[in-house]
Design a protein that fits this description.
The protein is α+β, with helices and mostly antiparallel strands. The protein folds into two domains: 65 residues, Alpha-Beta Plaits (2-Layer Sandwich); 156 residues, no CATH class. It is 63% helix and 12% strand. The strands form two sheets. A four-stranded antiparallel beta sheet has the order 2-3-1-4, covered by helices on one side. A two-stranded antiparallel sheet has the order 5-6. Helix 6 crosses helix 8. The longest helix is centred in the C-terminal third of the chain and has 23 residues.
Length: 240
């Protein structure tokens, strides 16, 4: 299927659109003419530009000129670019998941109540490590979107230590109501700032892995925060 988009000059009203559309109909399998923007799209045209303009000259002062169609999205290239961008984050999650599963394998059976605290311990310890590599850089990035860090910049310097404490807490007392309660509150609150940034299409760095990697803010960040908050909430509900 071949589609050609033309700019149209001379059209001033809906009547012009109808006249141009009717004149072009015999020369394509499908014709779509619009006034705003003044364009005509022909699918599988059977006449060239000069011939089409000759036809239009017989019904009024209308002229077609070629315009470039936007390039078709390359899904394969977009997928490759996405994987390249988020490769560090995917690797971190993969390592944490693998280690947590290996712990279950050592026990000889899989228990969700043991797997989740181990996974969350690995998550918070690893993510706090990357944040602490450049504490000032993380705090500056975090203040770009976190609701509390925007108003209290010092919170950005404290947050990695909160994650570190939660990681240790899950290692020592993974099924603690207190640890899970704090995790749910912290991660839910963090999700608010991420949701606002993503919904406003802000082009800012995600600080989830600190300032070490230049990860863009996206729905991936939302999934990360919601996942941790959801796991903490699930463990809280099973303990009540």
């Amino acid at each position: 299927m071949k589609t050609i988009m033309y700019d149209v000059t001379g059209m001033t009203c809906g009547g012009c659109v109808n006249r141009v559309n009717s004149a072009l109909q015999p020369f394509a399998t499908e014709v779509a003419v619009t006034l705003d923007p003044p364009q005509a799209k022909l699918t599988n045209p059977t006449a060239n530009l000069a011939q089409l303009n000759q036809v239009l000259s017989n019904i009024g002062h209308y002229t077609l000129s070629t315009t470039a169609l936007p390039p078709e999205p390359n899904t394969q290239e977009e997928s490759a670019a996405w994987l390249t961008t988020y490769r560090p984050l995917l690797l971190v999650f993969s390592y944490i998941t693998l280690v947590s599963l290996m712990v279950e394998w050592r026990y000889g059976n899989f228990e969700l109540h043991r797997f989740m605290p181990n996974f969350m311990a690995g998550f918070f310890l690893t993510f706090s490590f990357f944040k602490l590599l450049d504490l000032a850089g993380f705090a500056n990035s975090y203040a770009m979107y976190d609701v509390l860090a925007k108003r209290v910049p010092q919170y950005g310097y404290v947050y990695p230590f909160i994650e570190l404490a939660l990681g240790i807490g899950y290692l020592l007392a993974g099924n603690s109501l207190l640890v899970n309660g704090i995790t749910f509150v912290v991660m839910t609150f963090s999700t608010v700032g991420v949701l606002i940034a993503v919904s406003n299409h802000q082009k800012i760095r995600c600080a989830c892995l600190g300032a070490v990697f230049n990860l863009p803010m996206s729905t991936v960040t939302i999934i990360e925060d919601v996942l941790m908050a959801g796991m903490a909430l699930w463990m809280i509900l099973t303990m009540l």
